[in-house]
Amino acid sequence: MSKSPPLASLPPGSDLVAAWARRQGLTHHHYPRDEWFRAWEPHDTLLSPEHYFNAVSWVLPGASATVVEPWYSASGCEPLERTLLLYLSHPGLTRRAAARGGEHFNTRTTFLLSAPPPRVRLGDPPWDEAMASFAASSSEAVAALPPRLRRLLASWRFAGHLELRPGGLILHVADRPPSVAGYQRFVEEAPHLLQTLGGPA
């Protein structure tokens, strides 16, 4: 277990999230293991938060999912904005790419040690107009972001960050607060995300 972040109290709404998770039969930790999340870094387009709170985890067919509140502020301070991140782990994910719709408070803009992959176009005009895509090559981005996934995100009018790498993905949806409703949305969406990553159809 990692040590508890030095905050005066848990973020507002923490008890509501914990009670909801218990009712749903999901695993909840107010102070999740920091090391698990740090193993996903460095991020390509997302800032790395200072701390993580209220991780809710569950199992999907052949996969596992965790939703967590990233704390984008120094210890003891309130962040300007609060949000959620979804982590999906699945051995069938083998590609690396990132995509961003819009500019957000948690968009990474400084690159001291690790630069992001280059920005590429997928040859899908609606996607390329709405999203900034990053990968080692256009062909890698097309393989990592199959048409079914692009159509799903377009149906959501997606804004936020998506990062895929071998073994998993991270999803941030803009303007989704760390409320019970926000967690519930990710629980509902996670299976659909996994289904879209099964191939190019």
% residues in beta strands:
15-25%
Element-by-element helix/strand order = HEHEEEEEHEHHEEH
**DSSP E strands, number:** 9
Low-confidence stretches: none
Give the overall shape.
Answer: globular
Rounded mean pLDDT score: 90
Order of strands, widest sheet: 1-2-3-4-9-8-5-7-6
Alpha-carbon distance between the two ends? 42 Å
Oligomer kind: single chain
Secondary structure category: alpha+beta
CA-based gyration radius: 16 Å
Count of alpha/pi helices = 6
Helix content: 25-40%
| Main beta-sheet strand count, sense and barrel state | 9 strands, antiparallel
State the main characteristics.
201 residues, alpha+beta
Characterise the protein shown here.
The protein has one domain (14-196). By secondary structure, it is an alpha+beta fold. Helices cover 27% and strands 24% of the residues. It has a nine-stranded antiparallel β-sheet with strand order 1-2-3-4-9-8-5-7-6. The model has no long low-confidence stretch (mean pLDDT 90). It is built from six helices and nine strands. The chain starts with 13 loop residues before the first helix and ends in a 5-residue tail after the last helix.
Any chance you could write out the topology, listing elements then pairs?
Layout: H1 14-24, E1 27-29, H2 34-38, E2 51-60, E3 63-71, E4 85-89, E5 97-101, E6 119-120, H3 125-130, E7 132-134, H4 138-144, H5 147-155, E8 160-165, E9 168-173, H6 180-196
